[in-house]
Amino acid sequence: MGPIALLMTIAACIAIERSARYRYRDAAFFRDYFTSDLTYLIMAVGFGLWTGLSYVTPLTEWLAGQVSIPRLARLELSKWVLIPAGLVLVDLGNWLAHYLMHRSNTLWEMHKVHHSSRVVDWLATFRSHIGEQVLRNVMGPMFLIAIGFPLDVTLFATGLYGAFGVFQHSNTRLNLRAIEGVFITPRLHRMHHVPGGTCQKNFGTVLTLWDRLAGSYAPAGRESDVFGVPGEVETYPQTWFRQFVEPFRRLIVRMTLQHD
Ligand SMILES: [Zn+2]
Ligand SMILES: [Zn+2]
Questions:
Q1: 3-state secondary structure of 183
Q2: Percent of the chain at pLDDT above 70?
Q3: Average pLDDT over residues 43-53
Q4: Cα separation, 88 vs 82, whole angstroms
């Protein structure tokens, strides 16, 4: 069900983005760097699911056994409790990972890849460095499995979380003020992609709660349609391979300079 929710959200966002009335700004379906972002999508789904199912589950089962973490699965809680709880925990884990990526210089170099999108749309959701994907998966779904969430519940909650992620990046202009008190909407997340002060606000994906508690919540203000890496909007590399290499290249340059 989780992957189905994600696919349905992608289809709905693509449909709304094709409507001149409901999209936020004009952008072709095959916009610049479409194939680059499609590569991210294929890598995230293929690599993420493959490693998740092949290695993460047995690894976390083993880890949980080693450190005697109580297994939630044994409590046989209802899915009506586990799925919302899983979604909230995946959202919290990802909020924390996102917050750390804006606080650590090393992690920020990796997270710049996500901020480099000049067009914020459904496909831009998937543009993130593999290092960021690993961090988010460790602090989100892997953490859930480690504390004993059943795999099917974890996949469902993660799929729902992914659907929210696609929705908040969608190039849509919908009047969602009524839910902005509780949920991160596309315009709240667009503010996070503006290369000014608000890119240090609204780190959340699903709930505004974590940003409100941390003091990093910014209500929607005047909208901008310039997106990109602060200070490098025009110059940050845009192709998949250059973006894969760039954070490592910069970190090596920085370490070399420190040793000189
Ligand atoms: Zn960010
Ligand atoms: Zn984003």
A1: strand
A2: 91
A3: 73
A4: 10
pTM here? Answer: 0.91
Structure-block tokens of residue 58 = 């047995």
Domain borders along the chain are 2-17+36-259
Alpha-carbon distances, residue 177 vs 15, 103, 109, 114, 158 (angstroms): 21, 29, 33, 26, 25
Q: What is the Å distance from ligand 1's center to 175 Cα?
A: 24
Q: How far is the CA of 129 from the centre of ligand 1 (A)?
A: 12
For residue 54, report the distance from its CA to the centre of ligand 2, in Å: 28
- At 111 the pLDDT is 98
Count of beta carbons in the 10 Å neighbourhood of residue 121: 24
154 Cβ contact list (under 8 Å, min separation 6):
86, 141, 144, 145
Whole-number Å distance, alpha carbon 202 to ligand 2 midpoint, is 10
